[in-house]
Design a protein that fits this description.
about 250 residues; alpha+beta; 8-stranded mixed beta sheet; 8 strands; about 50% helix; about 20% strand
Length: about 250
């Protein structure tokens, strides 16, 4: 039997928040069962499209594994701009799932990993999982600084290091008091929707979603704190634009 070897890869581990509670409720509520089915069809498509879809990226070093309420995406660090690509993948996933009333928590790092269509394991997977389960706490995706460092060593083919750095910084927010962690800034990525009107619809729906769940979970301190955090992030995003979006504040 031939020896196998770890590869240095970017890896993201994502968890769909509230999934277990939804499953528990789904036996008695058809609408929740339908929602679970829709969301799992979506996560399946994320994996299916990478291997059998029209825009498969396997040849560019991308691998995807989905199971139950989790998604793992990885890229080889030899892929030019691989760090940027994995962050963009996560932005689309966060936006799509939030539009379906599902919040995501996750961790992204770089390290030793074996990942193909059949299996995914390694120290980097363990680290990404720990970032999600122990450190993220709120509905956010934490990003290890090593993701940026590796990406800038091998930027996108059309980019200088300075351009790549600018693009990366446009996708993230700093974690106060921690120079080694960042947060994926998916709510601010208005350019990734069809037009400004689609973005305004998205933030309006997000606003309604937050307000609804702040009311729903006001007696559940653990869950309520997550929506409080999301409210702060949402309001910070709205206030960061150079146009008046005050009507969308919570």
């Amino acid at each position: 039997m031939n020896d196998i070897h770890y590869e240095t890869r970017y890896v993201a581990f994502l968890d769909l928040l509230g999934f277990k509670d939804m499953v528990d409720q789904s036996a008695k509520k058809q609408s929740i069962l339908n929602k679970i089915n829709k969301v799992l069809n979506y996560t399946y498509e994320v994996q299916h499209n990478n291997y059998d879809g029209f825009m498969s990226l396997v040849e560019f070093g991308k691998q995807v594994t989905t199971f139950s309420d989790s998604i793992v995406i990885s890229y080889s660090t030899s892929t030019p701009g691989g760090g940027f690509h994995i962050l963009m993948d996560l932005i689309y996933i966060c936006i799509d799932l939030l539009d379906n009333g599902i919040l995501v928590r996750g961790g992204v790092t770089v390290g030793q990993l074996i990942h193909d269509e059949q299996k995914c394991f390694g120290p980097a997977m363990n680290e990404a999982y720990t970032m999600e389960s122990d450190e993220a706490i709120y509905p956010r995706i934490l990003i290890n600084k090593n993701v940026l460092d590796f990406d800038l060593e091998n930027p996108g083919l059309a980019n200088t290091v300075e351009q790549e750095n600018k693009y990366l910084l446009g996708l993230i927010k700093t974690v106060p008091g921690n120079k080694n962690l960042f947060i994926l800034d998916y709510l601010k990525q208005y350019n990734e929707l069809d037009d400004i009107y689609a973005y305004l619809d998205f933030i309006s729906n997000t606003r309604d979603f937050i307000i609804k769940n702040l009311s729903k979970f006001k007696e559940n301190e653990r869950v309520y704190k997550k929506y409080e955090w999301l409210k702060r992030y949402y309001n910070e995003t709205i206030q960061s634009f150079h146009i008046d979006l005050g009507e969308f504040l919570i």
